Amino acid sequence: MTRSPLSRRSLLLAGTASVLSLPALGGAALAQTRGGSAARPAPGAATIRLRLLETTDLHVNVYPYDYYRDRDDDTVGLAKTATLIEAARAEVPNSLLFDNGDVIQGSPMGDYMAYKHGLKQGDVHPIIAAMNKLDYVCGTLGNHEFNYGLDYLGTSLGGQNFPSVCANLFKADGEPLVAPTRVFQRELVDEAGVRHELRIGVIGFVPPQIMQWDKANLEGKASTIDIVEAAKRHIPELRRNCDVLIALCHSGIAGGPAVAGAENAALYLAEVPGIDAIFTGHQHLVFPGKDFSNIAGADAERGTLHGVPAVMAGFWGSHLGVIDLRLEGRDGAWKVADFKVEARPIYERTADRKIIPKVAAAPVVLDAAKPEHEATLAYVRQPVGETSAPINSYWALVADDPSVQIVSNAQSWYIKSIAEASGLGGLPLLSAAAPFKCGGRSGPDYYTDVKPGPLAIKDMADIYLYPNTVRVVKVTGAQVREWLERSAGIFNRIDPSSTAEQDLIDGKFPSYNFDIIDGVRYRIDVTKPSRYDGDGKLVAPDSHRIVDLTYDGKPIDEAAQFLVATNNYRAGGGGNFPGADGKTIVLDAPDLNRDVIVRYIVEEKTVDPKADGNWSLVPWPASTVVSYVSSPAAAKVALPAGLKADPLGDAPGGFARYRLSVG
């Protein structure tokens, strides 16, 4: 049975309610583009080539521009991806475009729109205005869609000329926040030139961890369930109502056994019968690709998850995901007979680290967001104070660092008076912060680098990338130690008896999970096994990398209580850190960490963010060759105290390798 399509206006928030006003859907909602039911294949066999296109993790990157560095950037931008979309459609007329989430947050334009400009009903967000030019069929919600609250999300969705789906997200009353599934009728042309009406079924998913990561915006207003559980609820009925079934999964690809509530569940989703193609995202990686070469069930060359074609199209518009399906129609049904998967980049990097753009930006997309782009430039260039010392993160993973120090200093300054007013002033106050911009999957230019002199808002975004809010947790000294042990998992184990070159950093460990805790002093012994694995599971209970941990000049009292200033992501359980699971929060501050840094600098007028050296690495033998990958620009800045680095040559992706010694 065909239901009436949902209008754009029905996606708007009703009044001042904090949840989206949508009808409950018992199954697939049919969004028809033409009257009548889908045509069945003719008695003889028919073959259709259907091209499915994906953008994902755009994060408000419309322009090929780096607002943090205030310069053009050919590695990002929907305006560039749009040119790839046009070319892909020209190759295969039967092409359908989808978005996989994380749209409205993630660049200074996103913060400008949310905190300075604002959105009222009827307004169209600039990234949405740009997407509206590209004829998207459908989208889903990413975890960062909730960073600015449900009212803002609803208004943003109201500006779309395409719907969004999400099957594992619910309002407080248990009804879907947006439609779980949709079915779109499309007229496709087979290889003989005959037209057929096909029903394209779409289902969407978001990481259930949004309830932790955005607790302040979602608690009491929304709930989530496991991605695979939601798929099993909806896919059987959706499959009966469609000819092709596409999963928009804003979730990454992880190996190992399936775990309920998994953040990266695309591989397990592929085991649910009935899915013809999966769009993935969230991890800011590329699939097919070498990042997934060792995961059982994932074919990193052909682009399949348990045999289902799947693609992950990078981030910030860096790639266009392409899945080509060859559909054969026979006996009243369409089946996938063959497929091809690729992720097409908007640029390439040469052996000498130069960026070569492969496409030009599409003017129609640039024009859609031009006023907001220009307003964002003015916004990020506003001065707020000065720094007397450089602030960079080139060595942030191997030595105490000013880019992290200034965050810790600002958090401590901000929380001190709030803690006293809350009756918590008698407890020792520590501050946890992590380096955000440390290269990695984002490339050799992705480092904080602020020169001495005036500090503008754009520099604050460079220092603190995410729109987190300040939280304070109360933990014991023992939990402080375990918190640091979890953080020390970023280091590979170094064999001091080996003379072969050994990489110090585990490239799969996110730098934002490398917390430095100020207020205590400690050293990290990387010759010992990591106590925790990459997911935060205790795997080496007899190992302790954290040594010489002291507070106020004495060994830390593991029974004593401490306050730790951090952010909502960490305090709510992000990263699975001991002592930070959402249950230890004692202060829920109203301000963004980034805004706290701005206020701190305004108050101080001039800051001197020199690292205080409260942590260091335990030296290894001089014969041990320990290498560290950073930007080539790292060789041009002063080394942190106690660190020596000698160039070892180029590293893949435009990075440089350095031999480290400490002590």
UniProtKB/TrEMBL annotation:
The keyword Disulfide bond does not apply. SUPFAM superfamilies: 5'-nucleotidase (syn. UDP-sugar hydrolase), C-terminal domain, Metallo-dependent phosphatases. It comes from the Bacteria. Residues 51-284 form the Calcineurin-like phosphoesterase domain. Keywords: Hydrolase, Metal-binding, Multifunctional enzyme, Nucleotide-binding, Signal. Residues 1-26 form the signal peptide. It catalyses: a nucleoside 2',3'-cyclic phosphate + H2O = a nucleoside 3'-phosphate + H(+); a ribonucleoside 3'-phosphate + H2O = a ribonucleoside + phosphate. Residues 447-578 form the 5'-Nucleotidase C-terminal domain. NCBIfam families: PRK09420.1. Belongs to the 5'-nucleotidase family. This is Bifunctional 2',3'-cyclic-nucleotide 2'-phosphodiesterase/3'-nucleotidase. It comes from Roseomonas elaeocarpi.
